[in-house]
Write a structure and sequence with these properties.
The structure holds two protein chains of two kinds. By secondary structure, chain A is mostly helical. Chain A has helices at 10-29, 31-57, 89-112, 119-138, 142-160, 167-198, 203-206, 210-213, 219-235, 244-247, 253-262, 267-274, 276-279, 283-304, 310-330, 334-361, 379-393, 399-413, 417-442, 450-455, 461-476, 484-487, 496-505, 520-546, 550-557, 559-566, 571-618, 626-647, and strands spanning 66-72, 82-87. In chain A, α2 (31-57) packs antiparallel against α3 and α15 (310-330) runs antiparallel to α19 (417-442). The longest helix of chain A has 48 residues, at 571-618. Chain B has helices spanning 4-24, 28-53, 57-87. Chain B starts with a helix and ends in a 13-residue tail after the last helix. Chain B is elongated. Classes of the chains: A mainly alpha, B mainly alpha.
């Protein structure tokens, strides 16, 4: 406690300063200065975060909490919300991921966005995103969290539609924003319910009180958690609100890596984990979370296997992996879910940045059918992508294996066998579609034009250095949370990640960080998931390298299934039919009939016409002849006099 | 014996002549003169009542009306001159540009 808590505000303040500088003066300062300030402010925030981490580590594990309240933001009668920050192990983990991975992606953007007309604008948005995301994870109350939540949504919109001259990209941005609004609406209702129940929105007032104010499995707990989860479903692209994420790939690739893979889309998982005290009072909703997570994981993985756009594969893969995270938190394995969030941030960032490097080398080509054999042209990209692909496929001992297996084990351990089976199948599919992407891109022979092949080149250092760092993290990043089943035989290494988060989740986690007997089945399941991953890799190898004509033969044999998968289960078409079209019709009705007809026609126009026509009639009285007026005047006088004379 | 009733009757007759003049004559100067008659009819009534009840306020009022009438004559005749210059006529039926 050396006064660190009074400097918490500096962590989000630096990116905010970056927004101001890049946004207001970026064009005047020139790209060179922007290239320093943009990543620099995030790097500084990371250093500050690391310092806070050290401070937090030095405190006793039970009261690791740094808090700073800047001021009372909304004092309104009973209600009050403050601008206040807090760092507990959970927030700290998120802050480190956001600033650390964020910094590397900012650095990568320097190379990727080089020469773009909106360079300063890009970095202003990216800084703004980092600020909003930090607000989200450092907020000490639900309302400030919601501010950050909306802020990242705004930045997501701005960056998806970054190249807004292209109509389809601008539309993708709007779609992301609108779909997110649906979730945000639910989230907001959840916050209202929380205030209604607890009389406060501060975590410190709400979360410790959850067990006493709510009844286990009660209606109130159910509705609060359900509405909060609706928010998470929107932000984290789960069924049924996942449709915006694949379209969000219209943004620049580093944006996809930072916002739509590593950080923003995981905000839903963070929010559920943050409100775990509430969710533990609503086991039905937790089951729903796990169910939706598992369903999304499988659903997205099956779509991912037939996509041809390299970024679309990664988008569906992200949705699928987010499903895993929700499955994890849904079975009350909160730290496992967060752990997968962290490792996913590493390897998915590499995959996106690597894909960006490939796209960069091929001057904007994203179709994997015209790639192939790029291993020799892009060696650094190749090796880092290999590490990340192995990691996501779940090959031990890489990061993805450790975290995914932890979730699968906790699912099985919690008695959710069906969910485990879904997760298990998804693991195999994940390995298959990721290696399909990998083989199609880097192996075999090049299928693009000769010109493209000759111009293909490895990316500049500013792009490859982040790739290498994140690639290394994809390999070793999982070791911070080695499950006890692996740690104990290796010399009693405890699950340090779980131990680190234990103070936050101790109510929910069943003291799993203490040494206990490892059931042999855990090793069995582990072996099984490695086997299924290997099987997936072999299938991809067989179909895309050994006999490249096999995919088209399979497609020809099962045309219906392929059409279903390639059409993404026609969810977009379904929504178009069920929601978008009726909504358009309704809007058209409101426009043509209510607005043009009733308001403009009858209301505004009608009043005008009435006055105009009426006055035309009345104005006949005004003849312009003075004597006529005088006649009326005297007539009036006589009438009044006559009245008084005769009747009074 | 000539009493107040005679004066008031004369005043009423004069006022009626004025009203009829204003309403019927087309020449602006005649209309103007008719208005003067009406004013003086009112003056006569005021003087009569003032003398009857013995209150000088009525007499002062008459002086005030005369002053106003003088000023009005100056302005009114000027307007009539301007009208004539503009239209070569003082027939008030020619001046109906403010019709609705």
């Amino acid at each position: 406690m050396t006064g660190v808590e009074n400097l918490l505000w500096l962590i989000p303040a630096f990116p905010l300063a970056g927004v101001a500088i890049n946004g207001l003066f970026g064009r005047k300062l020139g790209d060179r200065v922007v290239s320093v300030i943009g990543p620099g402010v995030v790097g500084t925030a990371f250093v500050l975060a690391a310092a806070s981490f050290v401070a937090l580590r030095s405190m006793p594990s039970t009261d690791r909490l740094l808090q700073q309240t800047l001021y009372n933001w909304l004092p309104a009668g009973e209600f009050s919300a403050s601008i206040g920050f807090q760092l507990d192990p959970l927030s700290m983990t998120m802050v480190l991921v956001v600033t650390g991975v964020g910094f590397l992606i900012h650095l990568y953007s320097v190379g990727y966005m080089h020469g773009d007309g909106g360079y300063a604008r890009y970095f202003a948005f990216l800084n703004l995103f980092t600020f909003a995301m930090l607000l989200l994870v450092m907020a000490d109350n639900f309302l400030l969290l919601f501010v950050g939540w909306e802020g990242v949504g705004l930045c997501s919109y701005l960056l998806i539609g970054f190249w807004f001259e292209d109509r389809s990209k601008a539309d993708a941005g709007k779609k992301a924003f609108i779909v997110n609004r649906i979730g945000d609406f639910g989230f907001l209702i959840g916050i209202f319910l929380i205030f209604w129940t607890f009389g406060s929105v501060a975590f410190a007032d709400v979360l410790p009180e959850a067990a006493t104010r709510l009844t286990l499995g009660g209606d109130l707990a159910f509705w609060i958690c359900l509405f909060l989860f609706v928010g998470a479903v929107g932000k984290s692209a789960q069924i049924p609100l996942f449709v915006w994420l694949p379209d969000a790939m219209a943004g620049p690739t580093p944006v996809s890596a930072l916002i739509h893979a590593a950080t923003m889309v995981t905000a839903g998982v963070y929010m559920v984990a943050r409100s775990h005290a509430l969710y533990e009072m609503a086991p039905q909703v937790l089951a729903l979370v796990a169910g939706i997570g598992a369903a999304t994981a499988l659903f997205a993985a099956t779509i991912g296997i037939v996509q041809n756009d390299i970024k679309k594969v990664l988008a569906y893969s992200t949705i699928s992996q987010l499903g895993y995270m929700f499955m994890g938190v849904g079975v009350a394995a909160f730290s496992a879910g967060i752990f997968h969030l962290v490792t996913h941030a590493f390897f998915k960032a590499v995959l996106f940045l690597g894909a960006g490097s490939v796209i960069h080398a091929l001057h904007g080509e994203q179709d994997m059918r015209t790639m192939g054999g790029l291993k020799s042209k892009l060696p650094i990209t190749y090796w880092t992508m290999l590490a990340a692909t192995l990691a996501i496929a779940g090959v031990p001992p890489l990061a993805g294996f450790v975290s995914k297996d932890e979730i699968l084990w906790r699912t099985w351990d919690g008695g959710h066998t069906v969910l485990w089976v879904i997760g298990f199948i998804t693991a195999g599919l994940t390995a298959a579609y990721m290696f399909r992407l990998f083989f199609l891109t880097f192996h075999g022979s090049f299928r693009g034009t000769k010109d493209q092949w000759e111009h293909a080149h490895e990316s500049p250092l500013s792009m490859t250095i982040p790739l290498m760092i994140l690639g290394a993290l994809s390999v070793v990043g999982g070791w911070i949370g080695l499950p006890a089943a692996l740690g104990q035989p290796l010399g009693g290494i405890a699950n340090r990640f779980e131990g680190w988060l234990a103070p936050v989740f101790e109510a929910g986690e069943h003291a799993a960080h203490e040494p206990h007997a490892i059931p042999p089945i855990e090793y069995g399941l582990m072996t099984a998931s490695v086997a299924v991953a290997t099987l997936g890799i072999l299938v991809a190898y067989w179909t895309y390298l050994r006999s490249p004509d096999l995919p088209s033969r399979i497609v020809a044999r099962s045309r219906g299934v392929y059409a279903l998968l390639n059409g993404k289960y026609f969810v977009d078409e379904l929504y178009d039919f069920l929601i978008v079209r009726p909504f358009y019709a309704l809007s058209r009705f409101a426009w043509r009939f209510i607005d043009d007809g009733l308001i403009d026609g009858l209301g505004v126009g009608g009043t005008g016409a009435l006055v105009k026509r009426g006055s035309r009639i009345v104005s006949r009285w005004e003849t312009g002849y003075v004597q006529g007026y005088a006649m009326a005047f005297f007539g009036g006088v006589f009438a009044i006099l006559a009245y008084y004379y005769l009747f009074r | 014996m000539v009493g107040p009733a005679h004066y008031i009757t004369l005043s009423a007759v004069l006022f009626t002549i004025g009203v009829i003049g204003v309403l019927t004559r087309k020449n602006a100067i005649i209309v103007f003169m008719a208005i003067e008659i009406m004013l003086n009819a009112a003056n006569l009534a005021l003087v009569t009542f003032a003398m009857t009840i013995g209150d000088v306020a009525g007499l002062i009022m008459v002086l005030l009306v005369m002053a106003v009438a003088a000023a009005e004559a100056a302005v009114g005749l000027a307007i009539i001159v301007a009208m004539f210059r503009h239209r070569e006529t003082v027939n008030i039926e020619a001046f109906n540009v403010l019709r609705g």
